[in-house]
Every structure is written in structure tokens, then in C-alpha cells.
């Protein structure tokens, strides 16, 4: 029988049990944020059922820096993506005769798309380096 330390809330245990039924396995690593034992999902990712977050195990400081950078950039990419969607929606509301507003929004959209593209490239490169 597995003993899983819990702090008076069984939703975490339930979630862990669910994940394990789905093929995840319990590891000897624990979450750096809350100390809960980490599960390794079938996809190979480590996961904290309490924080509801993926945890990346790093073996060196260099690797840690890379992972931090990758996750940081991924967050920025998400913010840029949300802005692209927002601008797209505002573009729809601008009447075609309002040339200046149209130009401004389009220009911003192009800048954001460029940033999105660059972020994608950088993130892909950091992924390659890790292999
Ligand atoms: Zn945790």
C-alpha cells in the first residue's frame, strides 16, 4: 500500500488516484512548492496534484536556467496571443471608413504577430538544445 502524505484534504489524493489509474506513476521526487510527491504522467512529464502544475526536474543549473527561460517566454507568448485575439476583435468593430484607426490596429497586429513568431522560434530553439 502506498502512503501519501496529506494535509486534511482528500481532493489531492483523489486526483492522484485518478491520474495513477490513467497510467501515471508515483515518483520519489517531491514538489518544490508544496512537498507533495510528484507523479510522472504517461507523457513523461512530472506533475504536482496539489498545485495542479507540471514540475520540471532539472539536473544542472544550466538546465534550470533554460527551463526558466522557456516557461517565462511561453508566458509572454500567451500574453501576446491574447492581445492578438483582442485586437482582431476590435478590428471587426472599426468601420472601414476610419482609415487611421484601421491602420493603427493593423500595425499593432503586425507587430504582435512578429513578436509571436519570434517567441515561437526562440522557444523551439531552447527545446532543441535540451535534447
Ligand atoms: Zn505542489
Can you put this structure into words, describing what you see?
With 131 residues, the protein is an alpha+beta fold. The chain contains 3 helices and 4 strands; from the N terminus they run H-E-E-E-E-H-H. The protein has 2 domains: 10-55, no CATH class; 61-130. A 4-stranded antiparallel beta sheet has the order 1-2-3-4. The relative contact order is 0.09.
Order of helices and strands: HEEEEHH
Any ligands, ions or cofactors bound here, and which? Answer: zinc ion
| SSE class | alpha+beta
**What is the makeup of the main sheet?**
4 strands, antiparallel
Q: In a nutshell, what does this entry contain?
A:
This protein is α+β, with helices and mostly antiparallel strands.
For this entry, give a set of tags:
131 residues; alpha+beta; four-stranded antiparallel beta sheet; 3 helices; 12% strand; binds zinc ion
Summarize the topology:
Elements: H1 10-21, E1 25-30, E2 37-40, E3 46-48, E4 53-55, H2 61-93, H3 99-130
Antiparallel strand pairs: 1-2, 2-3, 3-4
The structure holds zinc ion (ZN).
Amino acid at each position: 500500500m502506498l502512503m501519501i502524505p496529506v494535509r486534511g484534504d482528500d481532493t489531492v489524493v483523489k486526483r492522484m488516484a485518478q491520474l495513477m489509474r490513467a497510467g501515471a506513476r508515483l515518483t520519489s521526487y517531491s514538489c518544490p512548492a508544496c512537498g507533495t510527491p510528484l507523479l510522472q504522467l504517461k507523457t513523461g512529464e512530472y506533475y504536482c496534484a496539489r498545485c495542479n502544475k507540471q514540475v520540471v526536474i532539472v539536473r544542472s543549473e544550466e538546465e534550470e536556467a533554460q527551463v526558466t527561460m522557456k516557461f517565462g517566454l511561453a508566458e509572454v507568448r500567451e500574453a501576446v496571443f491574447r492581445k492578438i485575439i483582442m485586437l482582431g476583435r476590435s478590428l471587426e468593430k472599426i468601420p472601414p471608413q476610419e482609415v487611421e484607426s484601421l491602420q493603427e490596429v493593423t500595425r499593432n497586429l503586425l507587430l504582435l504577430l512578429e513578436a509571436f513568431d519570434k517567441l515561437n522560434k526562440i522557444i523551439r530553439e531552447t527545446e532543441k538544445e535540451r535534447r
